Structures are given as C-alpha cells and as structure tokens.
Amino acid sequence: MNILVIGGGGREHTLCWKLNQSAQCKNLFAAPGNAGTASCATNLPLGVSDFEGLKAAVLEHQIDLVVVGPEDPLVLGIHDFFLQDPLLADVGIIGPQKEAATLEGSKAFAKAFMNRHDIPTAAYAEFTAETVREGEAYLEQSQPPYVLKADGLAAGKGVLILDELEEAKKELRHMLLESKFGKASSKVVIEEFLSGIELSCFVLTDGKNYITLPMAKDYKRIGEGDTGLNTGGMGAISPVPFVDDLFKEKIENQIVRPTIEGLQKDSIPYQGFIFIGLIKVAGEPKVIEYNVRMGDPETEVVIPRVKNDLVTIFKAVQEKRLHEVELEVTPETAATVMAVSKGYPEAYEKGKVILGIEKDKMIFQAGTQLVEGAIHTSGGRVLAVTSLGEDHQQAVQKSYKTLSKIDFEGIHYRKDIGFDL
Ligand code: AMP
Ligand code: GLY
Asked: Considering the domain boundaries, does residue 12 fall inside one?
C-alpha cells in the first residue's frame, strides 16, 4: 500500500523508518518531512494543515493510508475533511476525528470527559471572562501552587504553575481578559496541584479494541537535573522502571479501559493513538492530560521497541480488528537523547551543517533539511539519538557515544537523561 505520514519531526521520521521496514509498504511519503524522512520516504513540500494540498497529493500518489503525526491538523478536523469528500472516503486515516481531538484541543472538554467516566485526575473548575471574579475567589480558596491552564492549544506553553496567590490572580486576568494565549485562553481551567513523578502511556485504538503500547518517560526541561525552561522534550526512556505490574494494572483498569469505554458511551469515534500524560501520586495513577497523537520524543523510544509490522497494525485499526493483533515488544530498554540548536528553547540558530550521522544508528531527525545534498539544522530540536540496551544506563551511554561523533555549530544535549530513575 501507499502511505503518507503528515508531519516533519523526529516522531514522523521514526514512523517513516518503521513503516519503511514493512514489505506491505510500497510507496512512502512524508509531508513536509525533513532530511531524515528523505532517506526512507519521498518528501512532499506541504504544510500539515494544508488540507487541499494534502488531498491533491493523496489523489496523485494513490495513497491508501494517511498517518497524522501532530495535533494541529487533527484538531482542525483533517479526518472529517477526508470522510466528507467522496474522492477520499476510502483512504484510511490514523488519527481521530475532530470531536475526539477535542480531548487535546480543549482542557475543559477533557476534564469533563474524565469526570463523566470516573477517570482519576486533579480537581478543577473552569472560568471565562464573564466569570473572572469567581475564578479569583476560587484561587483564594485553593492551596498553592496554583495551576492555570489555557483551555485551547498553546504550543505547549499554556500551563502556568505559580506559588503566589496575587501572581496567580494577575495571570488569570491576563489570560481571560487580555488574551495572554490568544483565543486559547478565552477559557481557563484551574486545577489542583498534583505532586508526583510523571510518565506517558500510549494507546492505539480502532474505537472499540485497543492495544497499550510501551510506557515512556520524557525529560522536558532544557537543563540538567530537570532545571530551566520547558522544551518539547530533551530525551526519553522506555520502559519506565518505576512502573511495575501492579501499577500497570491500575493504569489499565482505572484509566485506559475507562477512556476507551467512555469514548464508546459518548459515541465519539476514535481511530488512532491516545497519549495519556500520567502522574503517579502516592502509588496511584492520575491523568494530567490527553493528547490525540504520539509524543515526541517518546515515539523515538516506543516505536523502536515494537517488533510487529506497523502496517499490519495500522490496517487492523482501519478494519476495526485490532483485537487480532498480538503486540510484541522487545524487553530491551530504549533511550533517546535530543540534540538541540544553540539558544533553544528561546530564539535559536539555524542553517548549521550537521556532520557525523552514521547510517547504521537510530538517529531520528527533527529540525533538519537538505541543502544541496548536505544536512543542515532548521529547527530547535535537531535530532534524537536512540539506542537499545539491557537497562537505561547502558542505552543512554550508547546514545552518548553516537552523539560524540555528531557535530554542528552550537550543538547542545542533556548529559543526564535517566538521572532520576
Ligand atoms: P499539560 O499541558 O496539561 O500536560 O501540562 C504541562 C505540564 O504541567 C505537565 O507535564 C506537568 O508537568 C505540569 N502539570 C500540569 N497539570 C498539573 C497538575 N495538576 N499538577 C502538577 N503539575 C501539573
Ligand atoms: N513529549 C511531549 C509531547 O509530545 O507532547
């Protein structure tokens, strides 16, 4: 079959790398892709939310299956766009329809969903410009730290955690009355602060059946020891050593199954990945957030551990027979370390030549592009170097060894991925 992967980051390079290993994959395309996907797929110069452009590409290249990487096109309704077009109605899509994508597109929608289906999460209340006074009163009655979340998509920046009441009230007003995060903060969710260790759980569903993929832990801060500014992710490990069988069972019974059943009870169709951000609080799992896609850089450690043919799995999703798939996962630990551009996550440098990418290593490219045949940096997160090992220490060390041979001007990566495990 012919497959199109939408997106151009490390997640999409990993998906292309895996799909390309399948004998069932005839022609593989990425839109827009990057220098990494160019080595295993044909890049198409299209934006991820250019639905008309993507439609033309799907028809021209006779695409059978579209795998949507990032959240934006899902929240904008790419799946619905395909279903409504008679020329595209037969094309399979991995990624939910607009209604389900609201689980990521609106924090208030996600919280109401969890409450309705008894899925453990932080206590909350939601406010708009009309109810800003009530919001301030709610903060006065809450305990610090105060957690304020812009309801809509805010490129990962819409969550504020504040220690001071006055600061929290000021930020609440800033979000609701002065559009701090644009339209995304026209509604704000105020949440109970949860203290614990975070992990990510990945589920693939056809709407009825599901498989739980390996868990992962990512490292979001720029600095060693989890300090400094938040980033898209500086590294990840899978499996997560503090997830034992009992905790896994709790996640399955209290969160994963109720989520899938909740979607069915609410008659919300879903075909695709669900990324459940979890926190372990006193031995119990609670949901921090839902995402309607895979994580990045979590994909770079989850997918390399899956032994199955990914095309077989995606076909089973499309044909709603995911219960027939027996997931096979390597017991080895995968670690990925993200190399980023100088300045990231603030204004960063671009256009630097990258040297030392070894072909036989799992080097998943993110912000890269080919310029006259040479690989150049083109984004903040540049490449994710993944290795497998007997444990996370061994896997991380292998990635550091590979990274020691890679160079571009201003290269930076965290030297302590897995330090807290
Ligand atoms: P979110 O975009 O909802 O995933 O939030 C971003 C990050 O903020 C999470 O990964 C957590 O580290 C932190 N966070 C979000 N909600 C809470 C909460 N209720 N308690 C503590 N930390 C939180
Ligand atoms: N690594 C976090 C995310 O993909 O949202």
From this structure: yes
CATH code of the domain containing 77: 3.40.50.20
Query: What DSSP designation does 255 have?
Result: I
The answer to whether residue 156 scores a pLDDT higher than 90 is: no
Residue whose CA is at the smallest distance from ligand 2 atom 5: 295
400 in contact with ligand 1, CB cutoff 6 A = no
pLDDT computed for residue 225 by the predictor:
95
Atom of ligand 2 nearest to the CA of 298: 1
- Spatial CA neighbour of 211 closest among 329, 93, 77, 388: 329
Mean of pLDDT values over 201-227: 96
Our mutation pick for probing the ligand 1 site, out of 104, 121, 161, 189, counting the most ligand atoms within 8 A of Cβ, is 161
Q: How many domains does the chain have?
A: 2
Query: 59 and 21 in one domain?
Result: yes
Q: Residue 220 falls within a domain, yes or no?
A: no
Structure tokens that stand for 353 in this block: 């030549």
Question: What distance in angstroms lies between residue 240's CA and the mean position of ligand 1's atoms?
Answer: 19
In this structure, which amino acid lies at residue 233?
G
Cα distances (Å, whole numbers) of residue 208 to 78, 104, 183, 375: 21, 20, 33, 43
Cβ atoms of 139 and 165 within 8 Å: the answer is: yes
pLDDT, tens digit, for every residue of 239-258? 999 999 999 999 999 999 99
| CATH code of the domain covering residue 166 | 3.30.1490.20
Average pLDDT for the chain: 96
**pTM, whole model, 2 decimals?**
0.96
Ligand closest in space to the Cα of 198: 1
Same structural domain for residues 131 and 75? no
122 lines ligand 1 (CB under 6 A): yes
The residue segments making up the domain with residue 158 are 124-191
